[in-house]
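Reopening this one. Same input as before:
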Amino acid sequence: MTAAHSQINAGILERPAREPTLAKDTDWAGLWFNIMESEAGEFVGMRAGQRAPGAARPTWLFHSHAAYDGLGWFATLLRKEMPSTRIRIPRLKEAERPSLLRQVYALLRLLTRKPQAAAMWNTWDATWQAPPGGAAAGSAVAVHAFSSAATRQLSAVAGSQKISLNSLLLATLGRVSEALLQGGPAFWMVPVNMRGPVKLAKETGNHTSYLQIQTGVDVTPRKLHEQVKEKLSRLEHWGGWLFANSGRVVRYSGMKWLYHRELARTKGRPWVGAFSNLGAWENCGEWFVCPPVAKACPLGVGVVICDGALLLTIDAHPSIARDATWTQRLMDHWVAELDRLIA
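Same output, byte for byte:
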């Protein structure tokens, strides 16, 4: 581990200022994570880690999502590990922004969507609160590494169905997790990398929008893939981008009001979890990655392909799991489902 990593490997983040300094180049999307910290005491550190030879678990590094998005931080880590290699951050396939009118229309559709609480995990503790001083990184984490050969097989299965590997992975996870949920639809936050048509002052900053994707036992990989395509065609990621950056208009105080409003409208359960895929990277070694978790989004799932190998991470918030036993069981069911596809 390099010296550059030592300040972020303890799983405790420096608490944000109550009222951040706002500048022309403010990362407005990142400020939502400041609000989660200051208003709810949540730990908003993304995790990434490598396993030493023979080790069962990675050595985890953390950094606040307020400063980077997942791709931005991962690229930063790789640039520190491989300073002589040019590390490029992936871009959205869209080359240009849609018209402002179409973006605003997408935002209005998002704002007028009927609020609905997401399903709760069977183990969800509605009374959970962060301890005094704020939460730290949890330990309810499970990882799994597929071989390069198995990864190629899974990609071939997805290709034979004319869908993305991402759709295959999320649909299978949704299917095996359905029995652990109750009381509503399984809404997942699926981040969308907006780099390309969006260019912030800081290349590694929060260029992330999101889609609301629903899973279930009857949501096949094909149905989920079509759901993603339809939402992208309706520019829901652009509506999400305007919402994520609404602080430009409503300022920080307005963002805090929107944060509490959305929690109230969804009974504190807007999401069952976040499913983040950082794509494929070469010559980088084995890395596991995962987005932060919160009571309002209590499961984090991170997917990355390093040197041809698919690497999975699941992290559970303490409101649904006290240790890794619960998370490992879910990972085992998910992996078994994927293994059946390539058996």
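So the earlier flakiness isn't reproducible anymore. For the record, The chain has a mean pLDDT of 93.
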